[in-house]
Amino acid sequence: MTGGAAAEELLVVGGGVSGIACARAIADAGCPVVVRDRGHRLGGRMAVKTIDDRPVDVGASYFTVSVPAFQNVVDRWLDVELVRPWTDTFHVGDPGGLLGTRTGPMRYATPLGLRSLIEDLSLGLPLRNPDDVREVEPGPTVDSTAYAGVALAMPGPQALDLLGDSLEAERAASGGMWEPCIALIATYDKRVWPDLDGVFVNDSVVLTFVADDGRRRGDDAPVLVAHAHPVLSAAHLDNPDAAIAPMLGELEGVLGISVAPSSVIAKRWSLAKPVNPHVEHYFLGKSGVGLCGDGWHGPSRIESAYLSGRALGRAMARRGPAAA
């Protein structure tokens, strides 16, 4: 087991919104922290794919705000134009077409993609990526290196894969079912659908939601992003491209599209959404190992994940090194 400087640090594993919020809270409290993430870019499920030199959100579609603590963060993003108010009105449809509209909370979107918000939050934090973590054991230790505390900011099943057998309370807290999702990115030569921002698709086992990415981004590019129903997604996780045909077929039916896209891409998310997220903001065991993210502080959304990570980071900073 190695110690040294790492033994004084708090480690956050996961570079999504909850992980970066956790690390930021630790750093703001004056405690040493480092973030490890397996990806080449931060973001987690706030992922962005660049298509024709243009960012497209292929994970989360948007975010909403309901509490002042998150509103303060969003207000700063608005001031520096990282965020834009998108819409409070989506259409509702079914496989046969559009049925009307539904008004709800303001949905916020990002000109540069949602990942840009994670990159903004991470400025100044010590980052190690790509960097795969293999095992978390009591101590706490990560891959045989001792840390003052460890936060696993990720879906429960991923945390479970890392946690040693002797961390029984942490493993129990990582339980729960998650739904998969396949995202379809369809690019057209021109806009060939009705004027709308997005569509909730009801009474379907193919699609659940469609976003007009041009309206979401604010540049009116002819790009649609559709999310598959968990049933269809689960059936095609091993071969996401096999979901393209049924998803395109229903997309055409919902929006009345009669032309084929110029390009289409399918992106798989094996762990897209927790079925029954915990009501607690986070878990922090006596071992010094904590859990936060989408699976905590339900319902599942970007705001909840941010608040979960921030709450765990503050709790870890207050506690300091784990008891021996």
Explain what the structure shows.
- This protein has 324 residues and is an alpha/beta fold.
- The protein has two domains: 1-43 and 116-176 and 276-324, 3-Layer(bba) Sandwich (FAD/NAD(P)-binding domain); 61-113 and 178-274, Polyamine Oxidase, Chain A, domain 2, CATH 3.90.660.
- 26% of the residues lie in helices and 30% in strands.
- The chain has nine helices and 18 strands.
- The strands form four sheets. A seven-stranded mixed sheet has the order 6-5-13-14-15-12-16. Strands 7-2-1-11-18-17 form a six-stranded mixed sheet, with helices on one face. The chain has a three-stranded antiparallel sheet with strand order 8-9-10, with no helix packed on it.
- Strand 3 (48-51) and strand 4 (54-57) form a beta hairpin.
- Helix 1 (17-28) runs parallel beside helix 9 (302-319).
- The longest helix has 18 residues, at 302-319.
- The radius of gyration is 20 Å and the shape is globular.
- The chain starts with 9 loop residues before the first strand and ends in a 5-residue tail after the last helix.
- Please state the structural category: alpha/beta
What is the CATH top level name of the largest domain? Answer: Alpha Beta
Major pleated sheet: 7 strands, mixed
The N- and C-terminal alpha carbons lie at a distance of: 15 Å
Q: What is the 3D form?
A: globular
CATH homologous superfamily title of the largest domain = FAD/NAD(P)-binding domain
Indicate the low-confidence ranges by residue numbers: none
Question: What strand order characterises the main sheet?
Answer: 6-5-13-14-15-12-16
CATH topology of the largest domain: FAD/NAD(P)-binding domain
Average pLDDT works out at 95
- If you compute it from the alpha carbons, what radius of gyration comes out, rounded to the nearest whole angstrom? 20 Å
